[in-house]
Amino acid sequence: MRTFNIHSTDHSLLSAIQDKIDNLNKPKGSLGRLEEVAMQVCLIQQTLSPSVAHPCHLLLGGDHGIEREGVSISPREVTYQQMINFTRGGGGVNMFCRQHGFRLRIVDVGVDYDLSAVSGIINRKIARGTGNFLYEPAMSEEEFDRTLSVGIDLADACIAEGCRILSIGEMGIGNTSPSSIWMSLFGNIPLKDCIGAGAGLDNEGVRHKYDVLSRAMERYHAVYGKDETSVGPVTPIRYFGGFEMVAAIGAMLRAAERHVVVLIDGFIMTACALAAIRLYPASQDYMIFTHCGDERGHRMMLDIVDAKPLLNLGLRLGEGTGALCAFPIIDSAVRMVNEMNNFENANITKYF
């Protein structure tokens, strides 16, 4: 695995940023979370005049071998069908990208279908779906490295266009399964507490999903043992992860390395963020967790990294839609810092 040069945000500007925020013509602290977000964006970009220029959204697609075990109510073909739908502008992600001015990149990282001739899809396919981790690792070490590089390259392409804020979403039937396992392993939480209905499983479906994932974890532990500290985070990421998920991790880490704000979406992307944080703890400084979704365990996973999501709208669509919905809040925080007058210029008595 390539290494990243990621450090915690430099706090040398913190007092100057706080002073600017406190001297805006408003009661101190009266804009609440907007002030917190503004502080974080300023620290990420190391400036008193932050920017959310050229926002970009990566929509990453991939299929999962574990889907063959009936862990999702949605059939595998929905992945490629939705990827094609996105190129026609018909998805939730398309609507929100249009609404908020995001440049959308639709990327095939591992869909089990030939999308090479479909206009509007970037072909970075590693393979036609991962291996079935009930019986084998989802991907080889070589595939893992290539997939991570896909995410790095995509982040670099966005940044080359002037992107200062990057949002990431996914499309991959079955990807709540690896997300649940990562949550269990990285959060030291019983697997049963990490598994939910995904796209709409009933109670029997959830029980079956738990049985399948439990057996997969037993096989994994039989090979690598139960001491996660001795194995390191790369092994479980590679063993269970999807191509779209590992590419997302690569994009998150590269964005952090280059001091770009990263918007974290729902359950799957929070699992990817958790994996990225286990690899590089300082990467969390560059992440804004945008919402808490309906998937069982999402709130618990956010608590693992002490994240305070901006929204709680009951979303569980994926695609990065929650992150896109939260963008106006971040935009407002940045506008507050850049456009509000201060007490001195406004000739208003500072009363605190």
Question: Explain this structure to me?
Answer:
- This protein is α/β, with parallel strands linked by helices.
- It contains 13 helices and 6 strands.
- Helix content is 46%, strand content 9%.
- Strands 3-2-1-4-5-6 form a 6-stranded parallel beta sheet, sandwiched between helices.
- Helix 11 (267-279) links the parallel strand 5 and strand 6.
- The radius of gyration is 20 Å and the shape is globular.
Layout of strands and helices, then pairs:
Elements: H1 14-22, H2 32-45, E1 56-62, H3 77-87, H4 92-100, E2 103-110, E3 121-123, H5 141-160, E4 165-171, H6 176-187, H7 203-224, H8 228-231, H9 234-240, H10 243-257, E5 261-264, H11 267-279, E6 287-289, H12 298-304, H13 321-339
Parallel strand pairs: 1-2, 1-4, 2-3, 4-5, 5-6
Helix pairs in contact: 1-2, 2-13, 4-13, 5-10, 6-11, 10-11, 11-12
Would you tell me the overall average pLDDT?
95
Largest sheet: 6 strands, parallel
DSSP, total strands: 6
Main-sheet strand order equals 3-2-1-4-5-6
Rg (CA only): 20 Å
* Overall helicity: 40-55%
Number of helices: 13
What is the molecular shape?
globular
